[in-house]
Hints:
Layout: H1 3-29, H2 31-37, H3 41-49, E1 56-61, H4 79-96, E2 100-103, H5 120-134, E3 139-146, E4 157-161, H6 165-182, E5 191-193, E6 204-211, H7 215-221, H8 224-243
Parallel strand pairs: 1-2, 1-3, 3-6, 4-5
Antiparallel strand pairs: 4-6
Amino acid sequence: MRKKDRVRLARGLMLGMTTLCTAALFGAAGNNAAMTFAGGAAAVVQAEQGVLRGLCVALDAGHGGYDGGAVGRVSGEAEKGLNLDVAIRTKRLLEEQGAQVIMTRTGDYALCDENPPIRKKLQDMQRRARIIGEGRADIVVSIHMNEYAGRSESGPQVFYREGCPAGRLLAGAVQEAMVEGLRPAKAREALGGDYYILTLGLPSVLVECGFLSNREEEAKLLTEAYREQVAAAIADGLCRWHALAGEKPEPLEAVDRRDEPTGDA
Length: 265
């Protein structure tokens, strides 16, 4: 066999192996991956380039430090650690798709002074907003765990800024991906809400990953495997949103809330 023919054969074998490995990867990843990356050879190129390349995502792990957030009804586990774990997992998945990711916190701490001149929570939220603004994020995803007085409520819930079409579009894509990826007993719809983190002038969502007040859902959220599924669903939702055809609506202008009371998010 001539040298030129050997080179052609080697290239053919490498291309064949790449195709087989890609097919195996999508087969193992399941329906969500197939929906995100469907499209044959074009999809392989898209995956290699990163479907989120050029997008800067701010991931906000809710609460932290003195502020534990919701507490597991059975375990007593505070949501702050679960939020951070899901955020870190989501960060990895988004970066694998080419996104740049900003984290408002990377450990168990609040973003406020010990004795600030304003309320701790307000200073904490202002500093989160500053990190997001200085990082020039394109979108914001704030990650939380839910709770309710009754124990029957369950299912992931995505919130967007009330009256903001840009946020509603993003929230709808993430909510859909979470319902399809997690198969909750109760399939919720995205809702408008008034949360500080959603009023920064960017397409933003607040993701309540599940209810720590529900025994069954709490048990799932305490496992690494399920939190990985949650992170994958969030990342899938962002990929769906990013792939939507047509021009996306502009977000509402940022709200100056420096002197206002603030809720938990």
